[in-house]
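Data availability (excerpt). The following record was deposited with the supplementary files.
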Amino acid sequence: MSVEHRVTLPMGERPLLLEMDQVGKTFTGDVVALRGMSLKVNEGDFISLLGPSGCGKSTALRLISDLMLPTQGKIRWSGDHASGDLGVVFQEPTLMPWATVAQNVWLPFRLQGKSYNSVKDQVLEALKLVGLEKFLDSYPRELSGGMKMRVSIARALVTNPRLILMDEPFAALDEITRFKLNNDLLELKAQIGCTVIFVTHSVFESVFLSDRIVVMAARPGRVIQELTVEQPYPRDDEFRTSAEYAAHCRATSDALHKAMGDAA
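Predicted structure:
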């Protein structure tokens, strides 16, 4: 099966994919990382979790990905939920240095016991989607930082997941590369119609990428406000210089300052 190209419906028509219902997470020592988080994720959404360090953004991703269990509340998927429904992109590319680009993208299938030859078409298609089909035999040491992140994105989408979780994937990159990958990510999403939850500290990045921005506060981690960015896709550099973009950035920045004030 190749990477599925899904159609993204208008926001008000998208079916529910998963729901967080009053989810909380408390760690040893009574450290409350997340409290009472409720969030509905619909198919085709691009949701950014925006907030200061310690507000529970990454914890929320780990709970959704089943890397940890909630202390309170429930996370419910719509319909059947299998391990292949999720793709994850971390802040660091986390590539195996001894393996080629193609072998790194093959990893999720390898963990499922599938041979490379049986899935090589899917691997090649995923690399084509991120523009790296000519580098399948290259090694991570031969790639730039941006290219390594593209490999990580290809690895996340190669199993055709229903949801891709991205934990500050571009934070360590220079601004020019980051802008380019923001553009490429939206183009990729338009091609395959995936659902994305994206963690960021950047107001500007969240407004450019998202149709929904969930602003969070720390101590304890919780949702303060949700904003909608109704600017249609595709979005490009012209949107970055528009009055609409500036207005959304101001509103999002105000919400973030309120969140940080509430956490003080």
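Summary of structural features: The chain is about 35% helix and 25% strand.
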